Amino acid sequence: MKILAISDIHGKRSENLINYLKKEDISLVLIAGDITDFKLEGYDDPLDFVKPFIDELVEEADVDVFAIPGNCDPAGICNAIKESGPDEKPAFCLHNQLIAYENVVIMGYGGSNPTPFNTPGEIDDDKIYLHVYELLAEYDYIGNDSIPRVTILLTHAPPYDTKADTIESGAHVGSQGVKKPIHEFQPNINICGHVHEACSIDKVGNTTIANPGILEENHAVLIEVNEDASYNVEIVEL
């Protein structure tokens, strides 16, 4: 099974993305937030971009779509995600949710730790920690070790002090609230976004951290999962 992760769309569709999805036989697309932006040309409400963007992915490439909000997405973003996709293949808002998909379990948490820009989807880092901890703890409690599964934590904010949260100055701007529960539970993979220039793969303990960067730069993260729950994670060019 192939899963493609993208982030930081910011209201710009991508023909390269559509072509890649068709060519590579992707089953699932994960969107790590910031689907919209504060103002979008051609849209009275930025949320009006969400459905046509996701509908195109589903209808043109026959993929499932799971998405979380970013810090730039306004209130109502989860409803906009859930109203996207055809009736027989609706998109799913994974914010503060856990879902099984074949032999993968995906846990999602959107928004970001506070920024200097006072964006609508900012969350106190202590609150992020509490909610991400509870998601990972829930699966840790109910998970069956005899059934091999790949665990993916989908967040908008990258974990602090990694390649995925490094801005151009070299400073780290990620979330301790994401990093601490990763240390504690060690999910297999953390897909994140938020920091556009930090397209990278890194490690926190045994967890692979992957940030595809801003979609406009035509990068994504490809996750290939085998029947035995072995997997590979790589940055791909669209």
Put the structure in a nutshell.
The protein has 238 residues and is an alpha/beta fold.
Summarize the topology.
Elements: E1 2-6, H1 15-24, E2 28-31, H2 50-61, E3 64-67, H3 77-82, E4 92-93, E5 97-101, E6 104-109, H4 125-142, E7 150-155, H5 176-185, E8 189-191, E9 200-204, E10 207-211, E11 219-225, E12 231-237
Structure description:
- The chain has helices spanning 15-24, 50-61, 77-82, 125-142, 176-185; strands at 2-6, 28-31, 64-67, 92-93, 97-101, 104-109, 150-155, 189-191, 200-204, 207-211, 219-225, 231-237.
- Helix 3 (77-82) links the parallel strand 3 (64-67) and strand 4.
- 24% of the residues lie in helices and 25% in strands.
- The protein is globular and about 45 Å long.
- It has 238 residues and is α/β, with parallel strands linked by helices.
- It has a single domain (2-237), classed as Metallo-dependent phosphatases (Purple Acid Phosphatase, chain A, domain 2), CATH 3.60.21.
- Helix 1 (15-24) packs parallel to helix 2 (50-61) and helix 4 (125-142) packs parallel to helix 5 (176-185).
Helical coverage, percent range: 10-25%
Tell me the overall shape: globular
Q: What is the annotated CATH architecture?
A: 4-Layer Sandwich
Quick one: CATH class?
Alpha Beta
Quick one: CATH superfamily? Metallo-dependent phosphatases
Kindly provide the radius of gyration, computed on alpha-carbon positions and rounded to a whole number of angstroms: 16 Å
Residue-averaged pLDDT = 97
What number of structural domains do the residues give? Answer: 1
